[in-house]
Amino acid sequence: MKRILLPVAAAALTFSASAQELPASSPHGELEQVVGLTEVDVDYSRPSVRGRKIFGDLLAYDKLWRLGANANTTVEFSGPVVVEGQQLAKGKYSLFAIPGKDSWVIIFNKNSNLWGEGGYKEAEDALRVTVRAQPTEFTETLTISFDDVKDDKARMDIRWENTRVSVGLHADATAQGIANIKEALAKPDAKAGAYHGAARFALERGIMTKEALEWAQKAASMDPKFYVLHTLALAQAANGQKAAAIATAETSMAEAKKAGDTAYVRKNEDKIKEWSGK
């Protein structure tokens, strides 16, 4: 067969055309979740079952697993967190697991630039926690998600095949919230919303009730909307001023009725009954 020589430019064109982009068998996934005021970012590749037996077969029990496919799964925290009751500093970590039949060890490793288990060093572990393995509905593709996100807490769920493990996270936002309030209210142009938000934050957490009353009063004097008045009533009650709280709630309820907001009408009704002992 006669050999045909291509010019350099043509050869380069042929090579470039052959390097087409193809779908990955374990596609890349990312998710973000704010817990308290802390941002949590997870980056991972998502393998599928594809008719195979996964845990106890493809992935042997009690053996280290990268908790995903391709490049290692990573999780990054913008601030310090408590993981299953143990402290973990802010930073980016490789996420490993040692699956067991009844429980898993979840590992946060300081080396976030790994591929597979080969470069893993136990000495670089920042934290290990043990969580219970639970049966769940069949999940074809490895899925990491966040559930029960409330009160500065969240549950990070890892589901694949018929197994789910859950890792509890807690990122207390109280100290940062107070710092943010002080910064916002120190501004000469602080609006009613800033005072109202500060009062709500303190009341919801049961802290700084005296300051919450002052902030709620300031907000109500600047913008006496029904929801601001409701917060003022809550602050008055939190400071033992039940008669004043009832009067404020009645005003809030009347304004809510005018606005057609049945939810706030009901909230005020419930509080009036509670504070009046009826």
Question: How would you explain this protein's 3D organization?
Answer:
It is a single chain. The N terminus is likely disordered. The chain contains 7 helices and 9 strands. Strand 8 and strand 9 form a beta hairpin. Helix 3 packs across helix 5 and helix 6 packs antiparallel against helix 7. Helices cover 35% and strands 31% of the residues. It has a 9-stranded antiparallel beta sheet with strand order 1-2-3-6-7-8-9-4-5, with no helix packed on it. It folds into 2 domains: 147 residues, no CATH class; 103 residues, Tetratricopeptide repeat domain (Serine Threonine Protein Phosphatase 5, Tetratricopeptide repeat, Alpha Horseshoe). The protein has 278 residues and is an alpha+beta fold. The chain is elongated.
Summarize the structure.
This protein is of the alpha+beta class.
Number of strands: 9
When the domains are counted, the total is 2
What amount of the residues lies in strands?
25-35%
- Our count of helices gives 7
| Spatial order of strands in the largest sheet | 1-2-3-6-7-8-9-4-5
Q: Largest sheet at a glance?
A: 9 strands, antiparallel
Order of helices and strands: HEEEEEEEEEHHHHHH
The radius of gyration over CA amounts to 28 Å
Structural class of the helices, strands and pairings? alpha+beta
**Anisotropy-based shape:** elongated
Q: Indicate the percent of residues in helices.
A: 25-40%
